[in-house]
Amino acid sequence: MNLSSLGAGFDSPALASQQVFRAALEALARPGRIARVDALREAPGELEPAACALALALLDQDTTLWLSPALAAGQAGAYLRFHTGCGLADGAAAADFAIVEAHELPPFDAFAGGSEDYPDRSATVVVQVGELREGEGWTLAGPGIKATTRIRAGGLPADFASRWKANGALFPRGVDVFLACGRELCGLPRTTRIEP
Fold first, then answer.
1. Do the beta carbons of residue 26 and residue 35 sit within 8 Å?
2. pLDDT for 115-130, tens place per residue?
């Protein structure tokens, strides 16, 4: 593969990584709030810029990445391996970090959920969605949310809310999720509840 065809990463890796990391922390600290990520000029066509920027900020040679089939078929894996040094996992269960298309999202128990002693060893899952909008859609409650908030995420499986409830029941185990659309991120830590 011609490396020049992969595209550039961050212009200023240290500064951009810090900006993206702060946006990710803010998104997890305030579930349902949309954070904007503008640190990346270009990304492989199959990756949402926010998902790609998050991967560039969080992945390194000690992390493994799993891409859902539609993403693995493109240049995303080669791009992220080149820019971060990460390894590619053979399956979702072996990954520290995953990026998936919403329509390809496997059950959350397909990912590493950590253990009772080491819940931090769970996977971080980034789901690329077709839409993110505050103030409508699901009602969210839990830590970091004053009373409740609402978020709409387009393209997720119809049973996402029940899958999420099962993930929350594993606490302190379970996965944390970021929803990514364009240059926007929304965090869903495992402690967040989707209420009817």
1. yes
2. 999 999 999 999 999 9
